[in-house]
Structures are given as C-alpha cells and as structure tokens.
Amino acid sequence: MSNNIMTFIRAQLADSLLPWAVQNAAAEKFACSLAEVEELALENGILPARYQRNQNMISTAEQLLLFRSRIAVIGCGGLGGYVIEELARIGVGRIIAIDPDVFEEHNLNRQLLATVHTLGQAKAEAAAARVSEINPAVTVTPVKDAFCRANGRDLLDGVNVAVDALDCISCRLELAETSAEMLIPMVHGAIGGWYGHVATQLPGDTTVQSIYSNWVQGKGIEKELGNPAFTPAVVASLQVAEVCKILLGKGELLRRRKLSIDLLDMEIHEIPYGSPADVIYLPTRDIESARAAG
Amino acid sequence: MQITLKLFATFRNDRFKVAQQEIPDGTECRTIVLGLGLTEEEIGIILVNGRHVTLDYVLHDSETLSLFPLVGGG
Fold first, then answer.
1. Closest Cα of chain B to A282: distance in Å?
2. Local structure of B19: helix, strand or coil
3. Which residues in chain A are closer than 8 Å to B56, comparing Cβ atoms?
4. Does B72 sit within 8 Å of A172, measured CB to CB?
5. Which positions in chain B touch A165 (Cβ < 8 Å)?
6. What pLDDT sits at residue A287?
7. Which pTM does this prediction carry?
8. Closest to A260 (Cβ–Cβ): which among B57, B68, B72?
9. Which of A148, A183, B21, B70 is close enough to A203 for a disulfide, judged by CB 3.0 to 4.6 Å?
C-alpha cells in the first residue's frame, strides 16, 4: 500500500513539497492516519509543505527524526502550553501532555492554552485539542494526572526527552530522579515574575538537584510575584530549542550550566554547575583546623 | 576585611545591585544573608567568586558573594 500512497503523493507535489490538502486526501483515500502519511513521505525524502520554513535549518532527514520522537511535557500551564505549541509546530511527532489541573480564570493572563472556552477543561485535554488544530499529524497523549515517583516510570516509558514545565520544586526533583534512572535527558525551566532560568540535564548529570540544593520546602519568588505573559514564553522557547538540539544532536546544549534570565534589568547570567567536586564547601571547623595547622 | 556583594532578581528590590561591604574575619554567608533581611528559605543559589557554596561558607578578604533567589514556577 505504501507504494500506492507514494504514487498518489508524488503525482500531486507542489514545488517538490507535500501540500496539506494532498496529505489529507491520501489519508482519506488509503484509510490511514495523517501521521502515517507524514512518516511515509518523510521516509521518502518528501517534506510536508508546512515545514518548508524549517528547511534551511532542519533537513528532511532531520524532520523525520523529529517526527519519530516522543517528548513528555510535564506541566501544561505557563511553560507547558508554549512548549507543546512549539513542539507541534516544529513537527515533533508524539507528545505526552501531563497535568492534573483544569484551567481557571487566573491562568488567562499567561497560559497559552487557557481561553474563555477552555475554562474548567483539563489542561492536558486542552493541549491535545490545540495540537489537533495546529498539526493533526502530531499525536498527543493527554494524561490528567500529577507526575510523581509512583507513576513516573510509566509516563516516561519510551520518551526521548522530558520537559520540566512543573510548578512545584519537589515534583521537579522527582522528575529529575526518574529521568536519571531511566537515562532520559531532561530540559528544566522555571519562572517567577520577571525572572526565570533554563538548564539541560543529560543522564549522569545532577544539575537540577544542584539548582535546588538549598531548597527546604515551599515555592520560590513566584509565590509573591505570580507570572506575567512574557516570562513563560521566553523560558519555554529556550527549552524547546534545547529539546530540538538534543533530538538532532546539534549545537551546544545548556549542559552543566544554567541560564538565569532577568527580564526587568534585561540581564542573562550563566551559572556553572560542574561536577560535585567543583563545589567549594569547607565547614568552619575545617577552616579553623587548617588555620591552626598552617 | 572587604567583600563585594552582588544581588540578583528580587533581592535587588529596595537594596542594590552591587556593593562593597566591610565584614569581620570569620563571617559566614548566612550572616550576610540574614543581615540583608532575607531568610534562608528565600535563597536559591549562593556563589563565591562564581563557584557554588553553602550558607556555612566562611568568607575571605576580597571575595565576591552573589545571591540569587529561589525560582520554581511554571
């Protein structure tokens, strides 16, 4: 059947690209999914026309790599909404959208998936509905549940990258532990008011644990400041760039370093997170004994 | 002895971005943090000369202490 589909597609290419109408017609005529048509086209070196502006930075072979990837987005609020939108637009084929909450009115100032029509709707379900409007070839698996150690291994099964778009520090640490155990790269982002940060953790790194090594309980500055419209968009976009680089094996990752972003004073600081041996910590008694000895 | 104290994000509000401070020998980072009216729970990261330390770290002359608040929202 794939030969028949390819013959059908090849006869209707426009400037060597696969138009959306033809992708739809092929799925209908051959009773297969839009995703199956897209994968087959990409395997045969044919780019769906929607990705033509990706083409000078992402080749057709790389577009296939993205399409065959499975990304878990943990949290579908401020960060997660933008992350899911961008992953779907760039052509990542499978997205697991995880969030236990429903949209409330106070989400409307910043959460991309929150609209007057989605109030009361599960955030994970709204993510699936949004992606089906943007790019129906992308498969979204909505999970209306909170990520934790108990369900983490099931939720991250077969995932290429986990995107940390959570809003709770203990949950972030649970995600970091589960990702490490499952050897899954994790892209961490956090926001509060005018401020945010991003870091990428590959298996074996403990950057996220280090970022929160002084944390005892509760929330950060976001508790007092809330979050405006632009901070999640900035940090989520940096996270998606990192996801794409991990999937494509390109560029320099934010590995063992964190970008700390201040949109009020427009400053970006890079904080190194080396191996634990890089951390200088001398308990007072050691210094005193060193001084006494020396 | 003298240190340079750099504050980031919300820690700058009603304070400063950077300041020189005279401190006694043996001063821990914790003393500086509490002296600014901050609590330990508000602290995200503490850097001395660009390297991570804990609140117990005892400062030396001419070091630069940088304090960032905890950020965890999504």
1. 6
2. strand
3. 281, 283-284
4. yes
5. 74
6. 39
7. 0.93
8. B68
9. A183
Neighbouring residues of A263: CB distance < 8 A, sequence distance ≥ 6: A194, A195, A196, A230, A231, A234
* Touching B: A residues 21-80, CB under 8 Å: 75, 77-80
B16 close contact with A: CB closer than 8 A: no
Instruction: State which H helix or E strand residue A224 sits in.
Output: helix A222-225
- Per residue in A11-69, pLDDT (tens digit) is 999 999 999 999 999 999 999 999 999 999 999 999 999 999 999 999 999 999 999 99
Decide which of 2.60.120.1060, 3.10.20.30, 3.40.50.300, 3.40.50.12230 is the CATH code for B2-69. 3.10.20.30
- Domain-wise residue ranges, chain B: 2-69
C-alpha–C-alpha distance, residues A158 and A122, integer Å: 24
CB A107 within 8 A of CB A82: no
Q: Which residues of A touch B55 (CB under 8 A)?
A: 214
